[in-house]
Amino acid sequence: MMKRILPHPALSAMLLVVWLLMANGITAGGVLMGALFGVLLPKFTEPFWPDRPRIRFGRTLLVYLVTVLYDIVVANFQVAGLILFRRNADLRSRWLVIPIALTTPEAITVLAGTISLTPGTVSADVSADGRFLLVHALDVPDPVAEIARIKARYEAPLLRIFR
């Protein structure tokens, strides 16, 4: 019964929160309108999500988010140091081909987005079979170690989050 009313409960909650943030205040009308959007939009878009990914909310997701936020802050300082104190000729920019074990498009998208959010790296492409991710990195002394780091810090938790 609950699945019929809220086919995507996380999306419904997110829509309510985003609506309240856009309204820049919490009022009874704002909550009612956000709840209305939160119920109706997922209901109308349900046919477009036939194989919805199963996401495990919990400690792993929280640790992943904290790790990503920490990495973004640290990478900002690292990139600033590279820009300010390293000559262009001394940068070791590389294209990395990362084999991925993630299988759902949503999980691969989260991995690619995470990599692109971290300054100094950008996801450029996913192979046609979805088994490799092409990433450009600004300064990589050891490509093999960098691929292992990305797989351990980002892909391994995503494999547990997207079961």
From TrEMBL:
Q: Where in the cell is it found?
A: Cell membrane
Q: Which UniProt keywords apply?
A: Cell membrane, Membrane, Transmembrane, Transmembrane helix
Main localization (coarse): membrane
Q: Which Pfam families match?
A: MNHE (PF01899)
Mark the transmembrane ranges: 12-41, 61-85
* Membrane topology, from the record: Multi-pass membrane protein
- What stretch or stretches form a coiled coil here? none
Which family is annotated? Belongs to the CPA3 antiporters (TC 2.A.63) subunit E family.
Name the record gives this protein: Na+/H+ antiporter subunit E
Task: Look up and give the organism this protein is from.
Answer: Sphingomonas arantia
Output the lineage of the source organism: Bacteria, Pseudomonadati, Pseudomonadota, Alphaproteobacteria, Sphingomonadales
